[in-house]
Specification:
Elements lengths: L7 E3 L7 H10 L4 E3 L13 H8 L13 E3 L7 H7 L4 E3 L5 H12 L6 H7 L9 H22 L14 H7 L5 E4 L3 H7 L10 E4 L14 H15 L16 H14 L1
Parallel strand pairs: 1-3, 1-4, 2-3, 5-6
Helix pairs in contact: 9-10
């Protein structure tokens, strides 16, 4: 069963892990579509129909009634218009180091058929391997897209946060101080089960019906930062360094442990 009763939109650019996000959302129980490849749903035609509708100014795409979650184009291209339609949805920006990203795009799209979605976005620069001007057009679009998404969600992102674990000082400053949280309604059950015995009013966040009742938040997005702390801590128990990018949406310890087991089983 899906954990979030609403729409989820992956708004990361091509080749930033959108297929991985698509698969992860499917595993979590969301009915998800990745792009508009023929066969992905009845009526999918490589984006031709969706492009005509979008260009006419109508952003209420038919896929919105078919699916719970969406990744790849055209969704990342029209993320602002989607937000106007679904302000309570969840938005996931996947991204990569730009040098590795553009190298991946040039290699992947070389000698491939140019699909309508790429022409729609880049015109004569639809193939990033064609020449230096096309490569630069892709880089410029990638930088502008990521900057615009980050700026937009900076004031709307209580449940959105990006963190790149590059050094211990950043971790101590940005993640380690984020406290765990619990809900008033769950306290009787937790006490009966003997859980939360280490909790004190000054080291965790107690949430009532619509507000925090016992403390001031250390960060506006302290809840989501603590989720990142949980992921870092749970994966540390693997006993091995992790080289990769993790995208998480509404996860908990159970999900992190399940990921641990998948990694160990694959190793």
């Amino acid at each position: 069963m899906a954990q979030f009763d609403g729409k989820i939109f992956g708004i990361g650019f091509y080749k930033t892990g959108t297929t991985t996000l698509f698969e992860a959302l499917r595993i979590l129980g969301y009915h998800t579509v990745n792009g508009d490849k023929p066969g992905s749903y009845a009526g999918a035609d490589d984006g031709a129909t969706l492009i005509r509708q979008i260009d006419s100014g109508d952003f209420r795409l038919p896929t919105f009634e078919m699916f719970d979650a969406f990744t790849d184009n055209p969704y990342f291209r029209i993320w602002r218009e989607i937000y106007a339609l679904y302000p309570d949805a969840r938005y996931v920006l996947t991204h990569r180091d730009e040098d590795a990203w553009i190298a991946s795009c040039v290699s992947f799209y070389r000698d491939r058929r140019i699909r309508p979605m790429r022409v729609w976005m880049f015109g004569s620069h639809a193939d990033p391997s064609r020449d230096e001007a096309s490569r630069q057009a892709w880089l410029d679009a990638y930088r502008a897209h990521n900057a615009a998404v980050r700026e937009f969600f900076a004031t709307r992102g209580e449940q959105y946060f990006e963190f790149r674990l590059t050094n211990f000082e950043a971790y101590k400053r940005e993640i380690a101080p984020a406290r765990t949280f619990g809900f008033m309604r769950d306290l009787p059950m937790m006490n009966e089960l003997g859980l939360g015995s280490g909790g004190r009013l000054d080291n965790f966040i107690l949430v009532g019906e619509d507000n925090v009742v016992n403390t001031a938040l250390r960060f506006p997005d302290e809840f989501v930062r603590h989720k990142i702390l949980d992921i870092v801590g749970d994966l540390f128990l693997l006993g091995y360094p992790v080289r990769g990018r993790i995208t998480a949406c509404l996860t908990g310890h159970r999900d992190n442990i399940a990921l641990q087991r998948l990694i160990l089983a694959d190793g």
